[in-house]
Design goal:
By secondary structure, this protein is an alpha/beta fold. The protein contains 17 helices and 14 strands. It folds into 3 domains: about 160 residues, Rossmann fold; about 45 residues; about 170 residues, Rossmann fold. It is about 45% helix and about 15% strand. Helix 6 links the parallel strand 6 and strand 7. The N terminus and C terminus are likely disordered.
Length: about 450
Amino acid sequence: MSVTPHPQTILMLCHDQHLDRRVVAQAQSLISTGCRVTLVALSFGPESSREVTPEGIDLVRIGLTNIVPENPTYRGYMRRQQRLNTILNWAANRIPALRSAFNAAFRLASKGNWQCYRAMLLLVYRNRSLHDPLPFRSAFVNAAASLEGDVIQVHDLPALEAGVELAAQRHAPLVYDAHELYPEQKSFSAIQRRICSAAEARLIRHADLIFAVNESIGREMAERYSIDMPKVLLNAIDPPAAFDPSLKYDLLREKLGLSKDRRLLLFQGGFAPNRNLENLVAAFSKVATPDVDLIMMGFGPFGDTLRAIASKHGLLDKRVFFLPAVPQSELLQHSASADMGIIPYPHVDLNSYYCTPNKLFEFIQAGLPILANESPELDRFVVQQGFGVARPMQCADDIAAAIDHAFSRTEIPDWRRHIQMRRGEFAWRTQSVSYLEAMRSVFNSAVERRPPVCEAEATP
């Protein structure tokens, strides 16, 4: 009897629609070692689908109609709807001539039941825009039922309960990658934060390996849940092959027709509330440094609000300019065309206070000096590494003062030189080594738990 080895198969669960580059990077690292990766994520529409991505990921998307909440409020709504349906069928069978009237009454009662459900959601969750924060368990369990997986890896809290269940069913190791301090988001109400915190506290102990995006979030999780310190895995990126850090790019000025004597401060990423972007735009009515302009390069409907603020202050297309987001393959070339990047995120919640957003590592790979709001992790990466400066950014006046301070510093060439010298330390190829090293123990555990495959012994 002998054991026949075969490549590890990793089953990843992620509740995103747009795939986070962290997820794709980890999958690529695994695939490069000979592993097979199946990723279960959410679809953009009602239908499920399956494809192989250019990176070699077997991508299974869950149709949105398959996401069925399991909270008591939804179950109550469904019970009432089923009773209405039973009454309709009973009445229509008893008095067929009135079937049209019964159907009309059913539609009216169903609308009332739906409005009652919406009202109950608001009453229970205290949030007009978000309701059940963790509705994905059954959708992920059902979608993954027929998929192979020697190791289950969950990306972020919404898929963790499904991951725990699947790992238990298969006697497989479970990896939990916490992309953020998920329960501590301003968009959640107090009851939603309690629901998420209780779920994470209950489920996280089932994980064989836990990753966190930075030290502060890792320490917070360790203290909050009385677990060992998670492994820190940064949101690093590798520069695309087309990007040459030795070149001087000037794409932003070329696109906007700006003079070369203008210095450019760049914000890149999603335009959304609770990111201090309103104050950032308004701050340019107070920035005293005359040769500095703000470039807002990103996406999202909140951009209309930001444009209106710029227009109100007489800044639009004068000192504040908007550009659409560019593909990831072109992002660093555009970032490198600025003179400084800004990360103004306010401390609206603990998750934001501890954040290390994607743009931090994009700026580093682009060789771009950084101006950031003061916070533990941004201080660690921007100030302590000599990559830029951090200043308080609680209001527009603060941001204007921070911009004037940053652009007056004689150390700007030093910041750029430090980033150029050390950018490789913060690339994904470096983080990938740490990731695969941490996963090795999980792979070994998976092999130990795997039932042996017996080969028939040869007959002499």
